[in-house]
Structure formats: structure tokens, C-alpha cells
């Protein structure tokens, strides 16, 4: 592409001068006890309902790389950042959740113009360094935006144009591991923007080869190998996951086996395994990147809208999966799953409002435990980068059927619907001292302890 229409005033953009792989020793996670339900430390719901849309719900949540805050995205096309206070692990009892107020207000509110497709933090973001304190987003009919997470100002834009010379929106975005480029997924193509050259200059790569082989459809999810191996995985609504080289976007191989369009992909911390999940698909698939021929195992996510209904076998759903970063002989890796879904049968609407988060052992793919995170669909879950904490978001769109008398009920939401929460997990050195807190504080987790014993 020929350089043109770049921003006239050069914004302050992050700059990585050293090899980030040699900056410091990797952090060793504490040994988290996933057999003990976590307890809620902070809760937010009221400020999401102050706008003109009383049915505003959260779509996702992502913790910042430095662990200082987490970022939420909601149906009102708004981003909100919540800073973690110094007493971030104080216990929050059930009465505090239902007293009508939030733990504290959002530190920053940023409004997008249209529905948000994807967003991501700058990988070396630090709240103490204003230059790196940024995140990127893409929304319908808009270019990619780079936002200042301190002031909420728009730093710059990265614009792609279609054959009619009109702005086309990316469906997925991701920073490369070195934080120098933004990769954006479109329909059958990837555009790569230089972070330090905002405007309309980019490199474009087609995912469909000349012989019509490769990936088709909307490129809906991206993930880079965390070991800086130069490997990039891209999921598509065509039910395939493509593995590419980062430097020239050479297609290495295509993974087939998902029953629905890919909505989430994530590498294991050592980069040896890849996990994929899709919409209209009850399985999370584990792939060995050293072979990439067959699926290592398929974990079936079985949840119930009613005791006799296998939810994902009938639902139009989206599976999200999240992996904790610990790697210890006693606990190993774990995968967290949740989903966003609803069932439409003829004229009846059944909404899955179980609100549980399920934990699976990555070695075997077997279910380990679950806990109650909300009273409706869990739409997002994100681990703190180095503390035994996590943030969750919940909510779904409510449809009001005229004349059925449910208008008032649908608009009067409880404190644990369309909400966000911060959770603290028990870890090995603190189990004995906190055991009374868990027993007295989290009744909901034990109530659903046996939810999936048949999985």
C-alpha cells in the first residue's frame, strides 16, 4: 500500500526498543486451589444501567497486562475501566451485593460509535507509563481505534478501505507479541498495520490461496504463540483454524474439526497446545502444535437450562475459554469456560441463565469444579496476570414479547444480572487462614458444586 492520509499530528505511541523476551524472569504463579470456590471481592451493576437502555448488558471483560485494572465492553458500545484498589482482596458479603450500589465507580468511560467487534490491550501496557497505557478496538463501520486508557482520548486510527474506497471494519484484532504491529482480521484477508504509522497504510494478505485452498469466511479470532516463535493462529466462521507465520503470513496448515464457526482461540503458556471453541458447538478442542494432525482431546461443555435439557446440543451459542497461567506439579493448567447462548424453539424463548463458570483440567480435559458467578449468562472471564484473582462479566439481551405481561419483569434486573465481579481464588499458602471465609462467604459456589458431576 502507498502511504497516504496519515495523521497530521504524530500521536504518542508505545515504543519497544529491547527484546521483550529478555526483560525479566517469568513470574511464578501461586498454586491456586480450584477445588475451593472463589469468593467475590468487588461487584458492579448499577452504573451499567444508568443510560437510556435499561437492558444494557456486558459482553466481555479483559484484565490489563500490568494487572492494575480491567476493561469491560457492554451493549451500549461503551468501554469502562475499573482500577483494582489496594485492598483488592477484601471479602464482599452477600448483603453488600444486594444493597443497591457498586463497589466503586469506573475510572474511565469511553464511547464507541457502533457495536464493538473486538478489543485488546497493548501487550506491554503499564498504568505508570502513559505512553503504553493504551488499548485498541474495532467496531462496525469504523476504523481501528487506539484509545488512551488514562484520559479516554483517541490516540489515532488505523483505516482499511474496500474496493469502493469505503472504510471497512475489522472483525478481530491483536497486537503481535513485540507490540509493534496490529493484525486485523477481515473477510478472507488479514491487514497488518505498523503501530507507529497510523492512517491507511497497511499490508494485506489473502487467506485464500490461488488454488482456492486456505481459509474462507470472516476471520473472527486471533492468537499469537506466547513463546515468540512467530506463529499466529486465526479462527474463521468457516469452522477452520489457520496457522500462519507472523512475518510473511505464510499458511502452514489448516485445522478442521470444529462443528461451528470459531469464536475463541488460545495457546497454552508453553505454546505447545492450542485450544479452540466455536458457536453452535458444544466442544472445546485441544490441538498439539508439534503435530497438528489430530485433535488431542475434545472437551464437551455440558450445561443445563433445565435438568433434562442438554443446553449446547440445541442452542445457538458461543463458547469462550480462558487458561490460567500457573504451571506447577500440584495443580497444572486449568481451563475456564463459559458461554453466551439462547434457544429459540418455534415461538418460545428459553434463556440460559445458570450463570456458572466451569473449570477443566487441561491434561485430561475433564471437568474439575464450578462456581456461581451470576444469575444469568456469563459472557466473559479474565484472569489477573499474576494474582490469584479473576474478573467476570454477565448478561444477555432480553426480548420483550408484546402483550405477554412480562415487560416490567424484564426491565427490573437483579444485582447479579448484567453485572461484573472480581473474584479471589484460594491458593496453597492461604487455604488454612481463609477457610472460614470461604465457608461463611460463598454459599452459591457450594450450592452448584454437583451441577456437572455427570459430565
TrEMBL record:
Q: Where is the composition biased (Polar residues)?
A: 9-20
Which Pfam families does the protein's record reference? WD40
Please identify the protein, giving its name as recorded: Telomerase Cajal body protein 1
User: InterPro entries from the entry?
Assistant: SWT21/TCAB1_mRNA_Telomere, WD40/YVTN_repeat-like_dom_sf, WD40_repeat_dom_sf, WD40_rpt
Matching SMART domains:
WD40
Locate the region Disordered. Answer: 1-22
Q: Which Gene3D superfamilies match?
A: YVTN repeat-like/Quinoprotein amine dehydrogenase
Starting at the broadest rank, the lineage of the source organism is: Eukaryota, Viridiplantae, Streptophyta, Embryophyta, Tracheophyta
